[in-house]
Amino acid sequence: MDRPARPLDGGLILDLSTVPDLAALERGAARAREAYPVSRCVLDDRTWRVVDDAPTILETDDLQAFLDAGAPIRTTPSPRQALVGRRLVTVGHHAAGDLVSILAWVRHQLDVAFDREPAPPTDLALRTCEAPVRKSKYAWSGASNRLFSRAGPSNVRRRKKLHLAPFEPAVDVTYNDALLVTTLDVFAAFNAARGAPTDRIAVWCPVNVRARPFDGFGNGSSRVRIYRRYDEDTPLLERARHVREQVTWTKKNGEWFVPVDHPLLSGPAWLLRMYLSRPWVDMATGAFSHGERVGPGADEALWPEVEDLEIVGQLDQRHPFGIFGATFRGATRLTLLYDPAQLNDEDVESLAEDFERRFEAARAALS
Hints:
The protein is α+β, with helices and mostly antiparallel strands and about 375 residues long. About 30% of the residues lie in helices and about 20% in strands. It has helices at about 20-35, 65-70, 100-115, 175-195, 235-255, 265, 270-275, 300, 345-365, and strands spanning about 10-15, 40-45, 45-50, 55-60, 80-85, 85-95, 160-165, 200-210, 220-225, 285-290, 305-310, 320-330, 330-340.
């Protein structure tokens, strides 16, 4: 799935209150590599090959250039890092590990750098499902609408940040449901304002499928789609309840489950690429990801030196725009990631302003 126009790498940007010296950070990175052996490897076709070089952390003033360089998993072990002032930037490739893996790796590194004993690494075990469904009962008969875009994809990604004050809904839905409804409605309104289709809007959501949510380095994530199957005049509470109904059904019925012996995964790589390129494969309208926690405990204890956190996700080549974030130290940090070849500054400002406006409406309606 890794293509020149859409490399499957993502980033984690930490603002540190105290920055250890470079030697301490590199010592921590070496220990993290030992704890998580795949992070010592490059990928030759489908085989991991160990690279015995010492991890080096680039010191630079150009954060965007470092993010643009990505994580070339065929030549460089993943993750790779840079220090930009007081910001520790980590870029990892999805073939090596998902976001939870990168968080665990960096936490291990920082514990060593600050002379704390890191938690021992654990094996990756995935949830199972006895009779998983192939498709959600809420799905369309074909693919979802694509988000409006002005051109074809490029390999450039830019970002805009939003900070939100989370709230606790006073009804039978979750904060995450409120964010999902907001995203669905923003996508629909954005397409409607530009004459693009709005009858099949959906969100592409990563889900953590680990048996233990923060254990194991590797690919412990899968994907589900959440569909906008309500009318324009449906009250916000009913929209959120409908999203909650879909999330609950999907978790129970295993749409997220992919068996290890699936023919698409055990066959040649070109077969999977060909399948995913079919126009009827539903990649939803755009991506949304929000982590309600960034580790198995209190943020202040797990990340004592981290003041702020930004997650830079991955864009599939069919997505010109995605929303990625986490709630950390009492605030929700969202990164709006977009391809500047497909969306201009005015488009992105429109998406951001509409998201903030609809989020405040959701807060008023649900709390």
